[in-house]
Fold:
Amino acid sequence: MNRFYCKCGSEVFFDNRFCQNCGVALGFDHKTLNIIPIEPRGKARYQSLDLSARSFKLCANGSEHSSCNWLLPAEDENELCFGCRFNRIIPDQKIIDVSPPINHQRWCRLEAAKKRLLYTLLELKIPLSNGWSDSKNGLLFDFLENIEAGSNAVSEKVVTGYADGIITIDILEADDIARVSARSALNERQRTILGHFRHESGHFFWDKLFKEMELGSEFEQLFGNPDKNYQESLNQYYEDGPPSNWSHYFITAYASSHPLEDWAETWNHLLLIFDTIETAHAHGLTPMKPEIQNLIGSLDVWNDLVIVLNQLTRSIGINDAYPFIINELVSQKLNYIARLIESLHQNTTIVKPEQIKLYQE
Structure:
C-alpha cells in the first residue's frame, strides 16, 4: 500500500478518520486510491482541502457506526460507499448488552480487512462490481455468526467460504483467540482475516471471470483438473492429511486438497506479495514497485524482503511474518496468475508457460 499524507504534512494511514497531528477529518477516495483531508461544507457535505476542492459526503457506515472512512461524491444517490455496497449481511449490531460491544468490534475488523482487499483489487484494475448492481457477476459479503456466537444467528453452522457470488466470513475470525485456536487445530502456518478475504476472492474471480476463458491445458498442467470432485477431495484431505511431499508442489498444505484450493491459495499469496512489496517500496525498503507484468522481478525482490521481514519479527519476539517457501513450481503458478491478470488489461490470450513441472498425484 502507498503512503498517505495530511495537508499539514503529517503521515496518515489507510484506516484513519482524523489526522492525529492537526485533527482534520480524513476520508478515502476509491477513485484516486488516496486519503483526502476534508472539512465540513453545509449539511452532511464536505470539501476536499486539496487543489481540486471536490465535494464529498461520508459513507453512512462511517457517519452512523464509525466503521468506515470511505467517501462518496456529494451528488451520489447512494448512502453507502463503493466498499460498503459489497456487504449483504453484517454482524448483528443490536447486541449491545456486552462491554465492549463485541459485534461492532468484529465488524470493524472484518471491514478493515475487506477494504484492504478492495484497495489491492482496484490497484490491479481487476473488474469489480457488487452483487446489488450486477446480480450475475457481482460480489457480495456475508459476515455471519454461529448460534453460540450471538443471538441473531443462522440455523446452520457458519463456514467461511465462497458460493454463487457470495463470500461468507465467520465473524469469529475477527476474534484473535478463536482464530489462533482454529489455526492450531488445523495445523496452519498462518491464519489472518485478510488472508481469508484474499483466498475467497480467488474463488470468486475464478468462478466469475477466469473459468470461462480459453485457458487451454495450462491451468490443468499447473493446478490440476478444476472439475475434480470437490467434496470428495476435501474429505480425503481432512481424513488423510496432505501428501508428505506437498511442499515440493504447493504454497501451503491446504493447497494440495483440490486444484481450486491450490488456485485460491496461490491467488492469496500473489495479492499478499504485491501489497507487501508496494508497502515496502513506499517506505524505501525495496528498490522497485511491484509490477504484475514483471512478477519474476518482483519475486526476486520478495525473496530478499522476506528475509528482512522474518528477522524483524523474530527480533520482536513473534512468529515469522511469512513462514512459506516459494519453490520453482509455486513461482510458475504465481507467474501464471499474474499473466492472467495482465491479460485482462490487454484483452489478450495467455502465453503458455515454459518448462511446467507437473504435480503427480
Notes: The chain has three domains: 1-82, 83-208, 213-361. Residues 135 and 143 are 19 Å apart (CA to CA).
